[in-house]
UniProtKB/TrEMBL annotation:
Gene3D superfamilies in the record: Aldolase class I (3.20.20.70)
InterPro entries: Aldolase_TIM, Alpha-hydoxy_acid_DH_FMN, FMN-dep_DH, FMN_HAD
Organism: Tilletiopsis washingtonensis
Entry keyword set: Flavoprotein, FMN, Oxidoreductase
Cofactor(s) named in the record: FMN
Organism domain of life: Eukaryota
Protein name: FMN-dependent alpha-hydroxy acid dehydrogenase
Pfam families xref list: FMN_dh
Coiled-coil regions listed: none
PROSITE patterns per record: FMN_HYDROXY_ACID_DH_2
Lineage: Eukaryota, Fungi, Dikarya, Basidiomycota, Ustilaginomycotina
Residues bound to glyoxylate: 51, 173, 208, 314, 317
Catalytic residue list: 314
Amino acid sequence: MDPTNLPKRTTPHWSLYQRQAFDTGGALFSSHPDEVEALAHERLSAGGWSYASCNAGLGDTHRANRQAFQHWRIVPRMMVDTNERDTTTEVYGKRLAAPLAFSPVGINKIYHPEGELPVARVAGELGLPYSLSTAGSCSIEDAAAHNDQGAQLGKEQDRGSVDSKGLRYFQLYLPHDDELATSLLQRAADSGYDACIFTVDTWQLGWRHEDIRLGNYGFYKGIGTELGASDPVFRRKLDEWGLDPVKDTKEVGRKWIDSVWHGKAFDWSKLPWVIAEWKRVSGGKPFLLKGVQSVADALRAKEAGCDGAVVSNHAGRQVDGAVGSLDVLPEIREAVGADWTLMFDSGVRSGADIFKAIALGADLVMIGRMWIYGLSIKGEEGVRHVLRSLLAEFDILMNVAGFRSIKEIDRSALRYVGPAGAHL
């Protein structure tokens, strides 16, 4: 599209990234998901590739995620004036540049020396929500600062009428110690994180064959402990244990991740306390449950006081042989109603996937492995290229399929072509 022929859009003109590639003689690398994955495989160490790509068990859940998208087809509409199409959406009172967010992914330093920081910057620049994992390899405060830097750059680049401040979520793995849990939540609130996403599908890692073969676990090797080592409560505990964060990196890594991840599953009775603590320290900001795959769990989370949920199966990395997340999204949306926020991740690879998830009930679609691969290939440039390509693809899809705004994308835009007798 020629921007000189169009009225000024109130949303970023993402599709011009295509024009830029044609003008400059090509893009940084192919944005096809298969090619991105293959290139990341070439660049990463055996351990880095294994941790990025491994799925639980036989990988059946990972395949189910992709098959679920293939069971739905878009029904294009012709002769629609899409010149002023708008990709913006609103989540919890914040106007976003597109219905796209970064999934929380831990220990980014196994993919790039700067870890989470370039990812946070790109998210801020593009006006997309950034999610920091409790298993991150930088401090909560540093991720926030770099997210704000990116947001300032995006403002200078005029990314459209979106919130200029970096929008970020803190993904919580609940420590076994309440004092440590409160400390993490307080730090996130003090650093301007806009929501807490409590992940409940990872009381321990799923059985991932290749990671186990390689003994591939960065935390036990002393990699990725910065978030814990920067926490005052955890630092005090290290002093009590006689451990030095600089000298005893392997033991500190083991203590940290075993404190927030392994060995203890929580039930619904713990949820009210977690919600109340986040609401108290944050002044009432939104709280979501991540890992929801059933109507019953979604309704229970809503009744417990959660402000929303992330429909996710951890991209197939936890429960082998489970349902595809997109398969359960429509029934969860129907059960919780139109006004309760649903985010979605697991298996998203393309602009069409984003479109389908929105049509089936997602308010916000989260991307994980694609930006990990981009980070592995070319650092900050790679993350930016992957996300700008996805945004351009989605923007162009809206154009050629005849949809002028996110509000127009609903169930009527799709036709189900799944296997006969499949449950809807």
